[in-house]
TrEMBL record:
Pathway: Carbohydrate degradation; glycolysis; D-glyceraldehyde 3-phosphate from glycerone phosphate: step 1/1; Carbohydrate metabolism; erythritol degradation; Carbohydrate biosynthesis; gluconeogenesis
Active site (record annotation): H93, E165
This enzyme's EC code(s): 5.3.1.1
Catalysed transformations (reactions): D-glyceraldehyde 3-phosphate = dihydroxyacetone phosphate; L-erythrulose 1-phosphate = D-erythrulose 4-phosphate
NCBIfam families, alphabetized: tim (TIGR00419)
Protein name: Triosephosphate isomerase
Any GO molecular function: triose-phosphate isomerase activity
Keyword Cytoplasm: yes
Species per Swiss-Prot/TrEMBL record: Tsuneonella suprasediminis
Location within or outside the cell: Cytoplasm
Coiled-coil segments on the chain, per record: none
Keyword match Cytoplasm: yes
Length: 254
């Protein structure tokens, strides 16, 4: 079972209603690129508006709370996201881990909340530059995922994606080498197969994230075990994001 490349735009804390025109352009063009699964994770305030615009692309969120409801001022539950039209949620992004102290255990609890609400998951992992320089990138990332990922998931291939985003590559214009990406994605694949079995774990898409641009997308998407990309800055305009989507379609065709 080989799923289509999955190209996801993470708008982070960017976007007001004036950006709905970008979402609309992405949706219209994505229609012509059926070889790729395209999705956007706008800020919470735009989930429902983008959902109303989008006929072809998936809409998701960038985080959720681990409980269904309650006294948590300012938080949003997975059930609320689903109600607003979200189909997936990004969990454990390094910016959440760094800025909000999210632990692997909390990310795991959020995975369970999202699954209960019927959402798909994109679970993020990635090492800091010091960790890579010390030669510990792989064990660090695998330990993150061992705790963050759900313990079982019957439909892992459809329900789950993992995003490997080295922290030093996010928003810096630097990307990991394709050799390093292939090695890390291979290690993540082994963990997914161990946990979810050959058929399901073998088909979970492992996305690369960190300074993906139209210019480097093809090389990255052609790398072994890369099933898509999680894109920050370059997802903020339809033009650059669609350049990455087109690279995904080229790779799928070739
Ligand atoms: O963090 C990222 C996506 O989640 C990557 O961001 P950039 O594409 O801006 O480097």
């Amino acid at each position: 079972m080989a799923l289509r490349p999955y190209i996801v735009g993470n708008w982070k804390m960017n976007g007001t209603r004036s950006m709905l025109s970008e979402a609309r352009s992405i949706d219209r063009s994505a229609q012509r690129l059926m070889k790729v699964e395209v999705a956007l994770a706008p800020p919470y305030t735009l989930i429902h508006p983008v959902h109303r615009e989008a006929e072809q692309i998936g809409v998701g969120a960038q985080d959720c709370h681990h409980e269904v409801e309650g006294a948590h001022t300012g938080d949003i539950s997975a059930t609320m996201l689903a109600d607003a039209g979200a189909k997936f949620v990004i969990l454990g992004h390094s910016e959440r881990r760094q800025n909000h102290g999210e632990t692997d255990e909390l990310v795991n609890a959020k995975c369970h909340a999202a699954i209960s609400a019927g959402l798909k998951l994109i679970v993020c992992c990635g090492e800091a530059e010091e960790t890579r320089n010390a030669g510990n990138a792989e064990p660090f990332v695998i330990a993150q995922l061992r705790t963050s990922l759900p313990e079982t998931l019957d439909d892992a291939a459809e329900r789950l994606a993992v995003a490997y985003e080295p922290i030093w590559a996010i928003g810096t214009g630097r990307t990991a080498t394709t050799d390093d990406i292939a090695a890390m994605h291979g290690a993540i694949r082994a963990l997914l197969v161990e946990r979810f079995g050959e058929e399901q774990g073998g088909a979970v898409r492992i996305l690369y994230g960190g300074s993906v641009k139209p210019e480097n997308a093809r090389e990255i998407l052609e790398t072994a075990d890369v099933g898509g990309a999680l894109v920050g800055g370059a997802s903020l305009t339809a033009e650059s994001f669609l350049g990455i989507v087109a690279a995904g379609a080229d790779v799928q065709e070739s």
